């Protein structure tokens, strides 16, 4: 019998949740996704040293203030990493806009367009690039405009149903609901040590979104993310895409059990009725969801902190050059 990983690949596109070039080379996923946290870890490896140096040199030629050169260097580093990753996979790579711009639509648009331009300058087919943006109201509005321009987006840090509905209505190409972080919040708030996989709050959230999209004809791709265990992954078998860490990929590869399909567009049904979400409703429903509000804010802070640390490393390299 094939491993659970091989069985999963027959019903779901498997994405590598890592920026580690060696790990991507080993696992050969269909797609890959990065974020500031993953890039920060990867940048400590020797494999990224030439990219760091090239990014710093490019920023120096670009000119501008020290702060401007720093943002150019980190954006170029993300693009160079994405280019390297695309040479190892057949699909797409996601590259994230600076999380500190999460509440600024115009600034998000500017940085997203620059990332795409940088990819184009590197000779990369930009149809193979997804721009990752936090699922704030402002981020969703930026994604709506970018999609109209032909720039496909991955709406990340998604924790609530109202976020998912707003993203679909905006025509977002893909969403990344964070399964594990939803579980983390519920464990902390309930005092429980665990949930059975079929009762996992993160699993239930993604299943609800998936069924709503399929039952109502939305084309937005659902990519479950941020898993804490393989049980969560197995309960979402059949989801459009799942982005999985190397450690959990290994567990699935080592498991020779039978993997049943849990999500299927042909049998999807949803009690949730489609309706247009406006800004007031979005903000109210977000406010009413303590988990989503807290985890979105926490996620933005974490990504911003890692972006700042990445900039610190780039600055050190530039000063030593």
From TrEMBL:
Enzyme category, top tier: transferase
Disordered: region residues: 263-282
Pathway(s) it belongs to: Carbohydrate degradation; pentose phosphate pathway; D-glyceraldehyde 3-phosphate and beta-D-fructose 6-phosphate from D-ribose 5-phosphate and D-xylulose 5-phosphate (non-oxidative stage): step 2/3
Entry keyword Transferase: yes
Keywords linked to the UniProt accession: Cytoplasm, Pentose shunt, Schiff base, Transferase
Annotated localization: Cytoplasm
Reactions catalysed according to its record: D-sedoheptulose 7-phosphate + D-glyceraldehyde 3-phosphate = D-erythrose 4-phosphate + beta-D-fructose 6-phosphate
Main location: cytoplasm
InterPro entries, A to Z: Aldolase_TIM, TAL/FSA, Transaldolase_1, Transaldolase_AS
Listed GO CC annotations: cytosol
Biological role: Transaldolase is important for the balance of metabolites in the pentose-phosphate pathway.
HAMAP family given in the database record: Transaldolase_1
Family: Belongs to the transaldolase family. Type 1 subfamily.
Protein name: Transaldolase
Gene for this chain: tal
């Amino acid at each position: 019998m094939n491993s659970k990983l091989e069985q999963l690949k027959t019903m779901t596109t498997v994405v590598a949740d890592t920026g580690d070039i060696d790990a991507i080379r080993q696992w050969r996923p269909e797609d890959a996704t990065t974020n500031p946290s993953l890039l920060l870890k990867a940048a400590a490896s020797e494999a990224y040293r030439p990219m760091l140096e090239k990014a710093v040199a490019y920023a120096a030629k670009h000119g501008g203030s020290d702060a401007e050169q720093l943002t150019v260097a980190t954006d170029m580093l993300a693009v160079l990493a994405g280019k390297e990753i695309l040479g190892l996979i057949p699909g797409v790579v996601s590259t994230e806009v600076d999380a500190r711009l999460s509440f600024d639509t115009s600034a998000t648009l500017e940085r997203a367009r620059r990332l795409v331009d940088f990819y184009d300058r590197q000779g990369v087919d930009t149809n193979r690039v997804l721009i990752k943006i936090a699922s704030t109201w402002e981020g969703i509005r930026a994604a709506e405009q970018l999609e109209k321009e032909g720039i496909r987006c991955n709406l990340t840090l998604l924790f609530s149903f109202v976020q998912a509905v707003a993203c679909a209505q905006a025509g977002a190409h893909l969403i990344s609901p964070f399964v594990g972080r939803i579980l983390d919040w519920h464990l902390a708030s309930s005092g429980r040590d665990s949930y059975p996989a079929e009762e996992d709050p993160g699993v239930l959230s993604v299943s609800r979104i998936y069924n709503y999209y399929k039952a109502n004809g939305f084309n937005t791709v659902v990519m479950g993310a941020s898993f804490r265990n393989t049980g969560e992954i197995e309960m979402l078998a059949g989801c459009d895409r799942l982005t999985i860490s190397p450690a959990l990929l290994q567990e699935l590869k080592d498991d020779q059990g039978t993997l049943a399909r849990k999500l299927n567009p042909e049998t999807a049904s949803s009690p949730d009725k489609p309706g247009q979400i406006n800004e007031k409703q979005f903000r109210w429903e977000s406010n009413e969801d303590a988990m989503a509000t807290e985890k979105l804010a926490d996620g933005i802070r974490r990504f911003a902190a890692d972006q700042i640390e990445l900039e610190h490393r780039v600055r050190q390299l530039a000063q030593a050059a």
